[in-house]
Amino acid sequence: DVKVTQSSRYLVKRTGEKVFLECVQDMDHENMFWYRQDPGLGLRLIYFSYDVKMKEKGDIPEGYSVSREKKERFSLILESASTNQTSMYLCASSFRGLNTGELFFGEGSRLTVL
Amino acid sequence: DAKTTQPTSMDCAEGRAANLPCNHSTISGNEYVYWYRQIHSQGPQYIIHGLKNNETNEMASLIITEDRKSSTLILPHATLRDTAVYYCIVRAGNTDKLIFGTGTRLQVFP
């Protein structure tokens, strides 16, 4: 079975802290994604990576950066966490050329910024 | 990117067919329609996708209108476990990005 693993299910951080959210997939997928989910707003794409060291901005990249040094790992970085970044963060992966249609999601990381 | 419009919520009786509509009037000729669902506290799960033709798998059927401006996801015999938020998505034109909307909250009742 495809497995997308997010490093932490729950995190509590303080305003101004640097936060790392890690995601690892074991299916040799080229594509990896970071979304955030907030009540009433659905899932919003933060960043997308289609290969090692390659990335594209999603709809809401402000305040975030990403790192993809290895194919299996995609990290989301909050350089200076703010309270409006309190959210559920979801990582996903897929093969390139999405005609297979399937994104595989992790279980999510719920971040609270105080 | 083509945008989608879905009703905010729907109800369905257990055992009946659930028909979830989606409008995507600005879809381009090479853009696929995808459906995902998200059960509470879990990550979204792929259901089905299609381009022009109707599609069926073990989970659902996808009916796409001839002009491709709308589609319907059909769960033929809804169960209580089908209670979830259902997302209709059109793939961004020339990338692998999937842009989710706010979805339809389907409540299946006994």
Account of the 3D structure:
- The complex is a heterodimer of chains A (114) and B (110).
- Chain A is mostly beta strands and 114 residues long.
- Helices cover 0% and strands 55% of the residues of chain A.
- Chain A is built from no helices and 11 strands.
- Chain A has strands spanning 4-6, 10-13, 19-25, 31-38, 42-51, 54-57, 65-70, 73-78, 87-94, 104-105, 109-113.
- Chain B has 110 residues and is mainly beta.
- Chain B is 0% helix and 44% strand.
- In chain B, the strands form 2 sheets. Chain B has a 5-stranded mixed β-sheet with strand order 1-9-8-3-4, with no helix packed on it.
- Classes of the chains: A mainly beta (114), B mainly beta (110).
- Chains A and B meet through strand 4, strand 5, strand 9 and strand 10 of A and strand 4 of B.
Task: Write the topology of this structure.
The complex is a heterodimer of chains A (114) and B (110).
Chain A: E1 4-6, E2 10-13, E3 19-25, E4 31-38, E5 42-51, E6 54-57, E7 65-70, E8 73-78, E9 87-94, E10 104-105, E11 109-113
Parallel strand pairs in A: 2-11
Antiparallel strand pairs in A: 1-3, 3-8, 4-5, 4-9, 5-6, 7-8, 9-10, 9-11
Chain B: E1 9-13, E2 18-23, E3 33-38, E4 45-50, E5 55-56, E6 61-64, E7 70-75, E8 84-90, E9 104-109
Parallel strand pairs in B: 1-9
Antiparallel strand pairs in B: 2-7, 3-4, 3-8, 5-6, 6-7, 8-9
